[in-house]
């Protein structure tokens, strides 16, 4: 049997009633990985030589024993309700962004709820319980990691609030970006 070229094979399939797709559209990184958007005043991904695709494809974070044993005045919580849960991969992308920063993050106004990062349908926000509060972004990332490790459901949805060490007036939440409660 003679070798058949791809175009002749496609023509043969078309003549007997098969639909032939000749080219598939190219998939870009932007289509595969939602955009990671830093909060106001935080460095851009470009300034850190990062891309959204990199933040989504970094290895999943693993908690350390110190994270589990730290004492805070706030009782960390999951949720608190189904409306705030979101795909954990979006939260992990924000975790990677915050853990890459060497600066302070956090609220500047009482209970304002500043956004530190948005990715896909997730956002990482703070809730400040004094006139001004901030914490190292890496500590905010540890609070996000608590939510990832403690609040991820079997369906891979996640939401939670935890207090970073270093500031008793600040609480960090990893929640659905559409939640305004």
From TrEMBL:
Q: Where is the signal peptide?
A: 1-23
Q: Which UniProt keywords apply?
A: Signal
Taxonomic superkingdom:
Eukaryota
Q: What is this protein called?
A: Uncharacterized protein
Q: What is the lineage of its organism?
A: Eukaryota, Fungi, Dikarya, Ascomycota, Pezizomycotina
């Amino acid at each position: 049997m003679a070798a058949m070229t791809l175009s002749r094979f496609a023509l043969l399939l078309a003549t007997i009633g098969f639909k032939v797709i000749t080219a598939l559209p190219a998939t870009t990184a932007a289509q595969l990985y939602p955009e990671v958007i830093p909060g106001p005043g935080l460095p851009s991904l470009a300034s850190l030589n990062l891309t959204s695709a990199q933040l989504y494809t970094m290895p999943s974070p693993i908690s350390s024993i110190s994270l589990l044993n730290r004492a805070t005045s706030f009782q960390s919580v999951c949720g608190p309700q189904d409306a705030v849960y979101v795909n954990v991969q979006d939260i992990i992308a924000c975790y990677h962004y915050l853990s890459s920063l060497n600066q302070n993050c956090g609220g500047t106004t009482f209970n304002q709820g500043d956004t530190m990062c948005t990715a896909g349908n997730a956002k990482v926000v703070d809730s400040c319980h004094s006139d001004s509060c901030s914490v190292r972004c890496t500590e905010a990332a540890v609070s996000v990691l608590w939510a990832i490790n403690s609040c991820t459901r079997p369906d891979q949805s996640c939401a939670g609030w935890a207090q970073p060490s270093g500031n008793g007036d600040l609480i960090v939440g990893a929640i659905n970006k559409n939640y305004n409660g």
